[in-house]
Amino acid sequence: MKQIDIDDELYQYIASNTQSIGESASTILRRLLNLSGEKILTANVELTQNNQTATTSTAILKSSDPTAAETTKKQTPVAHAPVQQKSDNIFNVLNKEELAMQKGVVGRFLFILSAFYRTHKTDFSAVLDIKGRDRVYFATSKEDLVNSGSSMNPKNITDSEYWVMTNSNTTRKKMMLHEVALCLGYSAEQAEKIRDYL
Predict the structure, then answer these.
(1) Residues near 136 by Cβ (< 8 Å), separated by ≥ 6?
(2) Is the pTM of this model over 0.70?
């Protein structure tokens, strides 16, 4: 077994891609890297959250060429599996476990918007164009939201200068997340997935 250190960001990315309770890091990485069991003999990955290291066995590719197999045995095989995702993608930073710990719909709503902001700081101002028929949804100050209508219940999007109106039902909040995703360049399918996180 080989041990490698991974940074916090990579660990968070792997953890945020958990699709079911108890899913192993090996399963998550296989899915993310599109590795099938037929091509890989061994690829066991265990993540230890405390020291954030990954223990991985080396991956040996099947080969019908005996000389290639012989060469592989002589060398110390190393599993090269860089995660090549665009850094400006909310799916890389949104931690589903942390999302689940948020208090209520408003907490999850603000958490997702904060993840959008962290991922797209330079383009986030585009959300200011998202408005209802007679309501402003986003502003750069609490006062702007309060002055734009009644019962806005403005909340700050964590670590940003942006504020969002939270006095709306869950369906409206999902629609707002969908619109935010679209205006930040996500596909309709990705926007639906993000909306369903709420």
Answers:
(1) 144, 145, 148, 149, 165
(2) no
**Tokens matching residue 76:** 């110390």
Query: Which tokens in the block code for residue 16?
Result: 């945020």
Instruction: Determine the Cα–Cα distance for residues 181 and 192; give it in Å rounded to an integer.
Output: 9
Highest mean pLDDT among 16-25, 61-70, 72-81, 143-152: 143-152
Q: At a CB cut-off of 8 Å and minimum separation 6, what does 35 contact?
A: 29, 43, 59, 81
Give the strand order in the sheet containing 163-165.
Answer: 138-139, 163-165, 154-156
Over 90: is that where the pLDDT of 105 sits? yes
Task: Scan for tokens 């707002």, then name that residue.
Answer: 176
Task: Give DSSP secondary structure letters for the chain.
Answer: -EEEE--HHHHHHHHHT--STT--HHHHHHHHTT--TTTBS---EEEETTTTEEEEPPP-B--S-HHHHHHHHHS-----------SS-HHHH--HHHHHTSSHHHHHHHHHHHHHHHH-TTTGGGGGG-B-SS-B-EESSHHHHHHHSSS--EEE-TTSS-EEE--S-HHHHHHHHHHHHHHTT--HHHHHHHHHT-
Among positive and negative, which fits the CA dihedral 25, 31, 36, 40? negative
